[in-house]
Amino acid sequence: MSTKEPTHHRPLNLAFRLAVVSMAAWSPSAWAQMGAVGFYEVASENVGNAAAGAGADPTTAAIAHFNPAGMANLPDGHHFSFGGQFLYSNFRWTADGDNEVEGSDHKGPIAVPNGGVYGAFDVHEQVRVGFAVTVPYGSRIHYDEGWAGRYHNQRSDLIGLQIMPTVSWKPLDWFSIGAGISGWVGILNQEYAVNNNVLPLGEPEDDGLITVDGTAGTVSGTVGVTFTPGESTIIGAVYRAPVRMNFKGTAVASGLGELTQLLVPEGEWDAEVGFTLPQSFNVSVYQGFFDKFAVLADVGWTDWSAFSENELDLGEIPLEDIDRQFDDTWRFGFGLHVLPIERLRIRTGFSFDSAPVSDKHRTADLPVGPAWRVAGGIEGQITDLFKIGAHYTAILPQGGEYDISQPAILEIEDFNVDYTGVLSGQYKAVLHVMTVTFGFTFD
To answer: What is the pTM of this model?
Structure first.
């Protein structure tokens, strides 16, 4: 790889901070998770319950993902399931009177396919092994050309693949313990427009472009327990360890004007970004009644404040770390299973996630906030060995919209000008999550 030597460290530091900041945004589309930068919709039956009680639900092999200890509470036999999922939203951003950036509003679709594969297999009367293959992080945001926030983010594509082998052990009739080790692979591509008119000299020029590509790989751990104080009562608790991510890739600047190149010479740079996906703890409850319906609930905490600090490295170029000012989040969920006739299960549920960031610190690359989920689903047991289901979740921003008032990213004091100006407006969207699942049970 050829690397062009920078010659203007201080201005280059400022300009490239814009380019690399979003490489730290290891997240799905903000509209894919609303209250956090991770989401629960992983192509499983739990989509029909808004993931309420997912860490105790004994009706799906996807428990291997949500709480490995819960595999011990599945019915006898080997369990395997997979699902296909489609996430869609036609989200809008509209500038308000405080916006200082020239450009258009944005209105366009987000369409993200997803999938999940799960298994739980008997190896001993007290031991099960399993696995979960999921994509709990992924995005596809393509803003309109010329939108007002193009200097903050123009395009973002991300795949975050998790492969987790799991094991559960049930030493007592009322207690089980389980664990999983996750391997993570991340692929990131993002684009940002470059303001070629920072210096108010000469004729106006078209925007330049910075493209950031990176990959990452790491491992993390999950441990859980379940308690069954009654025949139809399951209480599950699961802890997920923090995940340290270090993306390595390149930042490429192109289409820069002559005056812009006095600040940022065109070329390619090695780029590294480090940050921590947070630890979390969740408690779930499943309570069945007369084999006809069940109540599910959960409460969870996520240490999103640990994600705030994003470390940046462009070799010899000195860069300051970025503080996103994230806060810890809380989640609450409630769901129902109803079995009106034999071989038919209806799911429903709702949940709420608090905001990981306040209005004044919300950014265009991660416009997250508090969100409600409302869900429903239906499953048919076609044979003793096979079932099929269809599930839906709507994710709604609390209050219908998120405000954003993002200060100018860079102020180049030597020339008394802003790189971006204040970006101010509102995001509006509802995300629709549609999932089809297939489950198999065999001896």
So the answer is: 0.86
